[in-house]
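INTERNAL AUDIT FORM
Audit reference: QA-55
Scope: verify that the stored structure record matches its stored sequence.
Auditor: D.O.
Record contents follow.
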Amino acid sequence: MEDKEIILLLRRAVETLERISPPPPEQTNFEASNAFVWHANTQLLETVKTINRVDFHLLKGIKQQQKVLLENTTRFAQGLPANNVLLWGARGTGKSSLVKATHAEVNNSIKHPLILVEIHRDDLLSLPALLKAVRKTKRRVLIFCDDLSFNNQDNSYKSLKTILEGGIEEKPSNVIFYATSNRRHLMPREMIENEQSSSIYPSEAIEEKVSLSDRFGVWLGFHNIDQKTYLDIVDSYVDYFNLEVREVDIHAEASEWAITRGSRSGRVAWQFTQDLAGRFGKKLEKP
């Protein structure tokens, strides 16, 4: 076989390998946005142009939680020591809203804005890959997981424990982790009780399960609100969006709305506000 034929065969082999090999991973432009969503299947960070959030000062009934989270996040943004945070408690009480609102509030007051990265609960096993990706930026990164919880067949909590405190490889210094959950210990009570009843060493089994929440240096509890706070939230939305509706008794209708929903919360107040604006043909546009 002549040299030209050998070269031609080698060239064809190289072209074939290039076609079947996966393309190199895209490099994230961390300057393109202040928010991203992590996709585990492609291991890519998708740019978020507009974050779905409410104004920090519209959140009512959680003044202490606001103060603690704002202070912790500000310290982190300034390069000072700060803790991972677990926001736990009743549904619809403003946990995820507070995280996103705090991100915006801090960014309004600092020179170098924080990046907010959302990771879905089902993608937690890909956390090491996400940390590897954010190591490439000098910007400070707040990783956020909403509605974090685990079941009896789920062992991804073990990898999360390592990430929160660091394994052999140190956690990036530019990263902090915030999570919300309806459960303080991130696991259902029956799951903990089952471990207690079936384990040879019950106390050790329980300790293994509940110690995950101990990895969070700050716990913020959220609880159901009273009628006055609920109506204050409604009033703040009405004023903020300039919903001048004199044809109805807003407090009476808001109370009835809460009764039909079986709860009072910031989420219920927001849903009532949307219904009120829609009925009277008004758009919820930020001033």
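Auditor finding: record pair retrieved intact. The two ends are 77 Å apart (CA to CA).
Action required: none
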